[in-house]
Amino acid sequence: MNFAGRTILGACSVAAIAALLTPQLSLAADMKLGLKDEPRPAVITLQETEEGGVFADKNGMTLYTDRDETKPNTPACTYDVPILGEVAEADDIRAFPPYPNPTTCLHKHKPVVDIGDGKAVGPWAVIEDSYGIKQWAYKGHVVYTSVKDLAVGQNWLDIETGLRQGRKRFLTLFAPLELPPDITVQEVGVAKVFATYSGRTLYTLTQDRVGKSMCDGACLDQWKPFLGGALSQPRGEWTLVTRDDHTRQWAFRGKPLYQFASDKAAGDTRGNNLPGALVAVAYPAAREPSSVTIQGTPVGDLYADDKGMTLYAYICPGSGGRECDDPTEKMNWWYVICGNTPEKCAKEWKPFLASENAKPTGGTWTTVSMPLPWSPVMAAPGSKEPSVKVWAYKGRPLFTHANEDRPGMIDGMDIGTLGGPKWFSIRATGADLNRKTTAIQAAR
Q1: pTM of the model
Q2: Per-residue model confidence as pLDDT tens digits over 327-338
C-alpha cells in the first residue's frame, strides 16, 4: 500500500482490507453482567471497566496476559533490551535513533509477585521466571499490570486499531461471566454479543414487554424464540418466560431473546438494524465525545472528528518489547517516521484539540495535555513544559492527517514500521441503533 508517496513496510493488501470489513452492530441498553465468583488468591480482585469486568491486582489495576508466550507458565516478557526496527520512506531506509537507558518489557509490565503462601487457588498458580521471580499465572498464562494504566478501571494497554495490523501483544484478562449453560458471549465484528451455545447471535425486540413475548404469527417467520431446554433453570438476571404455546423462552432482565432466521452461521448479524430489533450486546462501547463521529471507510467503521476526518493515534504494539506510547517515555522515533523534524511532523499531523471546557465522557475518552512541539504521547504527570489540550483514546492523543481532505480517507493509516511504532486509526467499537454510521463518502 502506498500512502502519500510513502512506502510502508508490512502494509495490508487490498484483499486483506476487504477481509476485515465487518458490519456495524446496533447496541442495546447497557448490559453489565454478573461475574462468576470462582476461587482466586486474596491479592487478585475483580474490577469493573467500561468494557466489562476484569481481574485486577490488590490495588485494582487491570491484569493482562501476554500473547507472545509459547509455553504454559513460561513468561516471554523479560528484561532483554528490545531490538530496534527500521522505517521506510520512499527509497530511504533508516534505523531508529539510539536512545539511553531503554525500558524493557518487564519495566512496563509488572507481574503480580505478592504470592502469599504460594499455594494454587482454582485456576491460579504460582510460577517462577528465569530471574527467579515468583508470580501468579491464570490458566497457564502469566499475568501483568501495565504502566499505561494510570488509574483503577482502565485497560489502556488493550486497543483495537483500524487494520489490526499491529497485533495486540497484551490482552485484558476479563473475568468469566455468570451465565446459564445455554448462553455464551461471542466477539462478533467489533462488539461482544450474547449468543447461543453454538455461537448464533441473539436479539431483543422492542415490541416485547418485560416478561412477555409479543412476537407471534408472521413475526415468527423472521424471529425464532430462543427456547430453554427441559433442565434449563433461571440464574440471576436470566429468566425463562412462558410463551402462549407453553414453551419457555430465555430472557435477560425480562427481555425475551430471539435468533434471526436468516443468520446461517455463528457470528452472523443479518438482523442488525432491522426495524424494532436490537442485537443483544453484552458490552456496549464507551460513549465518545460529541465532537467525535463514527465514519464508514474502506476498512470498516473508524472514529473521526466532527468533519469526518479519520482520527489516528501513535501506537507501539509491543512486538519485541518496543513500546513507546506512554507518558514515561519521550522518544524521537516518531520524527523519523514523519520527516525527521518536529516542524515536518507538525505539518503532517494535526492534533485533535479539545476546548477548554471539554469534559471526559468516561475512562476511555479523556482529555490530556500534549507537549509542544508536537509529541504523540501525553505529558508526564506534573510536567511544566508547554502543552496543548487534546482529546485522547485510552490515554493516546489523537490526530488528523494533513493529506486527508474528505471523509472516509485513510492516507495516514499504518504509517510506520514493521512490528514497531505506527500511526493507527481506531476501530469504532459500536454505535446506538438510532445513530447509524456515516456512509463511505470517499472512493478509495
Answers
A1: 0.80
A2: 666 656 666 677
